[in-house]
Amino acid sequence: MEFDIVIVGGGLVGASLAASLRHSGLSLALVESQCSPALPEDPELADWDPRIYAISPGSRRFLEEAGAWDHLATHRVAPVEEMRVFGDEGAKLKFSAYEMGVPELACILENRELQHALWQILRHQDNLTLLQPARCASLNVGEHSAELELQDGLRIKAKLVVGADGRDSWVRNQVGLGTSTPVDYRQHGVVANFTTELPHRGIAYQWFQPDGILALLPLPGNRVSMVWSVSPEDSAGLLALTREELSAKVAAAAQHTLGEMQVVTPAAAFPLRLLVLPKIAAPRIALIGDAAHNMHPLAGQGVNTGFRDAQQLVQTLLERGGCADCGDAQLLRRYDRKRKEDIYSMQATTYGLKHLFNNDDPILRKLRNLGMDATNHLTPLKKLLVQHALN
Questions:
Q1: pLDDT of 23-56, one tens digit each?
Q2: How far apart are CA 122 and CA 22, in angstroms?
Q3: What is the rounded radius of gyration, in angstroms, for the C-alpha atoms of the chain?
Q4: Which pTM value belongs to this model?
Q5: CA–CA separation, 8 and 6 (whole Å)
Q6: What is the 3-state secondary structure (H, E, C) of the chain?
Q7: Full set of structural domains in the chain with CATH
Q8: How far apart (Å, rounded) are the C-alpha atoms in residues 356 and 349?
Q9: In this structure, are residues 275 and 293 in contact, taking their beta carbons and an 8 Å threshold?
Q10: 294-349 residue pLDDT tens
């Protein structure tokens, strides 16, 4: 089997890349280890997916162009009209969509819903061959093509192999792009969904605390999604709580801003790390999404950075001019150069903020809270800070 592009990994970023190339004239294959995602038979009664993403306006436009947004159930999507950030000594910082002159700062939606919307397109895409469930066995990169062998013995040739296979990317490790050692944040992200006594009014909340970072993101109705970045020991403690105990603890940590809270979906946890790669492309290989970078979730930019990877790769491929070879080394170097500044700046920002607030120095504590309060009174500076996050 021969294709122009083989995408390994059918998660959000890999699926969005495939859908965005549906009118490209390129032949595509998608290798995915799982069966295609499906929604519960009755979405109204289904629990809310604990994996929640804040989709930026720029990512939304990309997903609209890919055709996925039209397949979303609108009653499962919640706009973020305001964000309120609190320091650990009473400092406050507020971002408002109205102040920024935009309809919304982000949209909150479930991983499951967006996966389903993207796969609605992929299942009917004329230039795409779906290989699922399927796992890769070997990858050999030659001068004119790359050959991928699956565990069932099927051999696939492609001009370009795209690794969209997550933080422990098999493709990245096979071609030697994974030589950088990840930095362990020594934190876990604990996620769960809750109903709230008081309406959230489209406001996302974030509290920087001495022992972690708590975020509550608005879901449709009186529901919120929690992401609490804490030490592995505190993470284990949170997972060991009963539903009632967890609800009370989160409500107290959120200073009862939304009143009493009740768990909707049980808590789950995942380790947090930073992965910075010197390059995310090589001859016949390109990495996107978590295969290309890992960062702290405190800014909610992980998946958005991945979508910008996919968007830039699509643009690079569509603007390749007379270069018929979509795996050409110079073409892929162009993609790598275009993405470096955005990826590094977002990683540096999240790394710096995490370590700024995870520090007990009393002088630093005073300075960081003074800085938050000062920023809150400078609208032009706030606009500058939020501008990149809207892309």
A1: 999 999 999 998 877 655 555 446 889 899 999 9
A2: 9
A3: 21
A4: 0.92
A5: 6
A6: CEEEEEEECCCHHHHHHHHHCCCCCCCEEEECCCCCCCCCCCCCCCCCCCCEEEECHHHHHHHHHCCCHHHCCHHHCEEECEEEEECCCCCEEEEEHHHHCCCCCEEEEEHHHHHHHHHHHHCCCCCEEEECCCCEEEEEECCCCEEEEECCCCEEEEEEEEECCCCCCHHHHHCCCCCCCCEEEEEEEEEEEEEECCCCCCEEEEEEECCEEEEEEEECCCEEEEEEEECHHHHHHHHHCCHHHHHHHHHHHCCCCCCCEEEEEEEEEEEEEEECCCCCEECCEEECHHHCCECCHHHCCHHHHHHHHHHHHHHHHHCCCCCCCCCCHHHHHHHHHHHHHHHHHHHHHHHHHHHHHCCCCHHHHHHHHHHHHHHHCCHHHHHHHHHHHCC
A7: 2-36+123-182+275-354 (3.50.50.60), 47-110+185-273+360-391 (3.30.9.10)
A8: 10
A9: yes
A10: 999 988 889 999 999 999 999 999 998 877 899 999 999 999 999 999 999 889 88
Question: Which residue type is seen at 343?
Answer: I
